[in-house]
Amino acid sequence: MRGQAHTLEAIIAAVLIIGGLIFATQATAVTPLSASTSNQHIENQQQATVDGLLATAAENGTLTDAVLYYNSSSGTFEGAPAGEPYATAPPNAFGTALNETLSQRQIAFNVDVYYVTQAGDTESKPMVRMGEPSDNAVVATRAVSVYNSSNLTATDDRQLEDLGGEEFYAPNVDDDELYNVLEVEVTVWRK
Amino acid sequence: MAEMNDRGQLILVAGILLAVLFIALALLVNAAIYTDNVATRGGDSAGEVLEYQAGVTDSIGGLIDAENAAASGGDNFSDVNSSVAGGISEIDAAFGRNNLRRSASTDITIVNTTEGRLIRERNANDFESWEANASDVRRFVIDLDTDNMTTGSPLVVDLDGTELKINKTGGEVKVNETGGTECTTNADGTVRFDVTGERLDGATCQFGWPDFDTGSTVGIENGTYAGGSYELTIKSDDDPAWLPSETTRAVYSANIKLRMDTPDLRYETTVTVAPGEPDV
User: To the nearest 10°, the Cα dihedral for A78, A79, A81, A82?
Assistant: First the structure.
């Protein structure tokens, strides 16, 4: 009888301790060192990475080339399905940079290009759509201007001033050489 | 049996005590993580401002070059200048709207612009020889058509006394600074010599860019020995009639006052936009 009571006592004590431990670890799912998708340090790192990526692309001109990588007859960026954005990185130098810094580290991204309309509003043209960003997504932007003398960089390499009204997604908003001011917005999040 | 009942109570009390202890531990660790999370959130509030400044200077730099390139020989400085001013106000409006989406307010105003000359020759069989007063020079790039270079006779680029001899000998293009650096590359097709960037065909060619000041001159001598295209913008008010025929009046640089107010900080600065100006 006594032996049975002791065994029962030990089992109850063990269940209590294990239960308490499980509760404690559940309550602290994210420790400062755990690599979770919602860790603030990861958000900060992603912010710095994508800021740097955009700054480099703007500096070496690949960002401007990417916003001008457009097929006027299909109304999409070159190589994307008709009327749709890319589902992965674009097939150009900017896309290669996105792949090497983000895709290879299991980071998903959306890219949108904001432009000024003739009425003075802002609208966006999606360039890459990988899905719905999580709550812990970070956003980085970089502005690039295009001019009448800027050339499209895809198979069609006409100058913007030679294009018809609807042939480029952004309209001509200036009487002189400025064509439009575009803003590239990259949203990144951990898959 | 009485002893057994006491032990049951003891286990229960000890269990509750352990549970309370673990909850306290969980709360403590959570508080630490939350503090860390909040403290490191939005760590780099200057990043937004720097991104804005870089975007504005790039956009205005591109605008100045585009307006200069589109000007025709008969245009006055004020014509080009007002086109640049019109473009800058469009850029200001666009940046204002884009930043408003992120609850930041921005403003761009022109402090002043500097008059200059855009000197260029395009697809010439041989260059003209000329000299101009220039208190600054930016974006000086020569695309040499090696088939149109006279072997053994150098084209001379005179940068306020620093003479660069550009010569074709033995299948190579040589850039030679009198008594100094010599750079070579294969004489094949078109060779680009970026004078302000100090690069020959992509490779560095550090001849030492001279300091330009009031009274400095820039010019090309023996232009007839080489052909191709070149382009440079100088800070000068020389009459274009003395310079190569494609020369136009241009905006050399613009001083721009930038302001940005974000919830975190207020930033105001004046920047000089002169794309392709060498760092000396």
Answer: 40
